[in-house]
Amino acid sequence: MPQQGTQQHLNPVIGSHQHIGGRRNLEDRMQVRIVQTAGGLQLTVALVADGIGGQNFGEVAAELTIQTTFAAIQSATIYQPEQIPQLLKSALEEANRVVIQAARKDAQKQGMGTTATLLVIHQNHLYLANVGDSRAYLIRNNKAIQLTRDHTWAREMVQQGKLSPQEAEVHPKAEELVRSIGYERTLSVDLGIYLNGDGTENRAVRNQGMLLQPDDRLLVCSDGLIKQRLKGRGHFVETGEIIQICRKFAPQEAAKRLVEKALKRNTDDNVSAIVLAVAAEKQKRRRGVWLPLLGVLALLLIGVIGSIALGDPLELRGILSADLPVTTVTPTTAPATATSETIAVASPTDTPKPTDTPSPIPTGTPTVTETAVPPTQPPPTRVATTAVIAAPTTDNPTPTATPSPTRHPIAQHLIDTKWVLKTEIQDNLLTPAIVSGEINCALFLSKYDTYVAKMDELPEKLEAYSADDLPTTEFDRLIENMRSFEFFDVPVERCRNATEPTLPTDHDWGRLNEMLGSLINEFDPLINYFNPAN
Hints:
Blueprint: E1 13-19, E2 28-36, E3 42-52, H1 58-74, H2 84-105, E4 113-114, E5 116-122, E6 125-131, E7 135-140, E8 143-146, H3 153-159, H4 165-169, H5 201-205, E9 210-211, E10 217-221, H6 223-226, H7 239-248, H8 251-264, E11 271-277, H9 282-310, H10 313-320, H11 334-343, H12 368-371, H13 380-390, H14 409-436, H15 441-462, H16 472-482, H17 486-496, H18 506-521, H19 523-530
Antiparallel strand pairs: 1-11, 2-3, 3-4, 3-5, 5-6, 6-9, 7-8, 7-10, 10-11
Helix pairs in contact: 1-2, 7-8, 9-10, 9-11, 9-13, 14-15, 14-18, 14-19, 17-18
């Protein structure tokens, strides 16, 4: 349980996709979900099992492995994270026992087996166990690190120095497994997390429990996704493509696109992919909201104590009055909270776009001057005391002259861009279109062009600021996703096609609406980071 003051971890965002590919039977099995152990540990568990031998019931071995492994983890009484690696090893050993026992009972099933790549995340710490040639990757800093080691004949020959990598790769026995569930009674589970290449297993085991970073992506997949294509034409999905897709899209969409990429290149196997995105910590994202509030409360408390010391109950009531605007206490701090709350919903009052709607920020109302002083005429000494306490850090002593706090230029541009996406495209166009099945294509294209222009302006605006002033990881992801227009492609193409006036379907609008929702959510942490201006 997180201690007071520590960061509270969120569960990873998960997505998965699978296809039969070039096989007659679907021998792959996979599962990813949150599991609560009997001992009280909450784990995110992802498992890919690639069954061996269709005629020998490889799919049965894979299914038994999935069921047995998850059941073993859920029933475990462990309560310490240090015990997780041993739990993963025991769970796969139990799956091996169940598969071998099932094969003994049915002669047709003898020889069936499966790979198993088992990945677990607990409070942003990674644990891994592997048997066979399914894989796990860590995508970090524009690199894809293969965390598992293939237990194939080819790798063993290279490891032992008997063949070169080039010789082993083209050998007829190259892809034969030397470790698998159901292969023999004693299972050798690989607990290594291979961050630095094909090192020793004992050294790689030390990486168990490694801390994941916000924005890390993890991929668990069967070999149908990444194995070598025929005639030396590369892999079905290249490492660079894994990086690009996993970074560019939300986990569910990323998993789908990875599988589709392999299918387009005629993969000869089943294809399975699980993608996990590590979330940021709750406390870290909220810290900037609470600190300004604490400053406001401290200043108000000083005012209350001062009034009590001077013995004027009327002055005390004036300070505590609900009519007293927070902006007259610290105009540079209090609006930050109000503005942050308003921006999160991207309503028309958030940005200067809807000029016919007045701003709800207190400093924009004409009653600030009236409420800043109690209605009754106070003694001169009380007015002087209140003035000293209320505005020690105010750069502008006349808040009524400004309708709202000065926003950071980047924050304002983000608000304007989000306005186009959220209000003008999603709320005013897509939502009615989904309900009624009709849309004004000319208006949609106009708003789309506005969004493209906003997107093109953002990188130029960012160049004016030092990299030290920017949360670069979040901005890189936002810009990368903003530049991805693929989910706009079908609606835009159909609306612009004069010869075929076929409007986008409900499915087109629904998918666009879903993707826009994910993109819009990425604006809020950055808007809150830059608003108000420091």
